[in-house]
Amino acid sequence: MTKRDMMRRGLPWVVLAVVLAAPAAVLAQKFPAKPVRLILPFTAASAVDVLARLYAQKMSEAWGQQVLVDNRTGAAGIIGMEAIARALPDGYTLGMGNAATLALNPHLYQKLSYDVARDYAPISLAAIIRNCLVVHPSLPVKSVKELIALAKARPGQLNYASGGVGSAQHVPMEMLKALAGINIVHVPYKGLTPAFNDVLAGEVPMIIPGLVSVLPYHQSGRLRIIATTGATRTGVTPEIPTIAQAGVPGYEFDSWTGFLAPTGTPSAIVSQVNAEIVRISNLPDVRDRLTNLGFDVVGGTPEAFAAQITSNNARLGKVIRDAGIKAE
Predict the structure, then answer these.
(1) Which residues make beta-bridge pairs with 121?
(2) pLDDT attached to residue 64
(3) Are 174 and 185 in contact (CB under 8 A)?
(4) Which residue has the higher pLDDT, 69 or 26?
(5) Could you give the 3-state DSSP secondary structure of residue 295?
(6) Which of 203, 194, 129 is nearest to 162 (CA)?
(7) Which residues contact 300 (CB under 8 A, 6 or more apart)?
C-alpha cells in the first residue's frame, strides 16, 4: 500500500507506517489482543445483521475478546462501506459486504466513494440468500413460461414492484426481462416493505424478494412462488424450479454476503479470521439457525470470495448497463 493510499484513508502516515512495518507473524500471534469491531452497512435486526451477530458471538467466545457489531447504515450501504475502507488495516476493524454494496453499487453510482478492488481484502463468503419470483394469485400464471407468454401478449401492461431503483428486486427482474425478451413496467418504492405489501394487497402483481420471507404467504395461498432465482433448486422448496430450469437459460441471481478487511490488513490476520469463519460456518447450530432464516451457509477461502465478487461485478454490471439503470 502506498503513502497516497494510506493518506486517502484519513489516517496519520506515521501510525500506518508503524502498523505496516510490523511483521505479519508478530501481529497474528498477538491477534486479537483487544476488542474487534465488525462494521455492517445493514440495518439492525435484518437477516444479515442476525447472521453477523451470530458469527460475532462465536468469534468472541473463541478469541476471548469481544467482537462488537457496528451498524453503519444509509446511502445504499455506502456509509458503512466507506467506514470499512478508511479503517486502520490492523485486523481490529472488519466488515461485511453483500451483492448490493460490492457488485451493484459500483455500476449504479457514477462517483462511488469506495473502490471494491482497491479498498478491501476479501476474507470469506459467509452465505447465499435465496430469492424467488412471486406473483399475486390474481395474475393468471402458474409458471415462468405462462408469465412470459402473458407479458408478450400484453407488452407494457404488466407491472412489477421493487424496493427502489438499483435494488435487489429491480436488477434481477431487469435481467429476466432482457433474457426473456419481455416488457414489464418497473414500479419503484422507497424500500422493500411497502413494495412487498402492495404486491400482497394485489396492487402490483409481482416482485422478486427473499424466499424464506415469502414462504408463509405461498403456503397460505396469498402469494404464489413460480420460480427461484439461483443456479440450483433450494432445499426449502425442492419442488419449485429455478427460472433457468423453467425456460430462461442463463438466468441466475442470488443475494450473498461475506466478510472483508481493509486493504493492507496483514495476510496472517486475514488467514486467521478466515479459518475462524470457516470453523463457525461448519457448526451444526449455526447452520441450522441460518438455514431456517433462508441462508445457504458457505464459508470459503479469500480467493473464492474474491472470485465471487469479480464474476458478479462483471455479470451484473452488464445487466445494469443494458437496462440503463442509474441510482436515484
Answers:
(1) 261
(2) 97
(3) no
(4) 69
(5) strand
(6) 194
(7) 124, 125, 278
pLDDT, tens digit, for every residue of 296-321? Answer: 999 999 999 999 999 999 999 999 99
Cα dihedral sign for 108, 112, 117, 123?
A: negative
Indicate the pTM of the whole model.
0.84
3-state secondary structure of 186: strand
Q: Rounded to the nearest 5 degrees, what angle is found at the Cα of 103, between the Cα atoms of 100 and 106?
A: 95
At 213 the pLDDT is 85
CA–CA distance, 174 with 98 (Å, rounded to integer)? 19
| pLDDT for the residue 236 | 84
Three-state DSSP at 146 gives helix
136 is written with which cell numbers?
399475486
**Mapping DSSP to helix (H, G, I), strand (E, B) and coil, where does residue 106 land?**
helix
**Close Cβ partners of 206 (under 8 Å, ≥ 6 residues apart):** 133, 134, 135, 136, 139, 147, 158, 159, 160, 161, 173, 184, 199
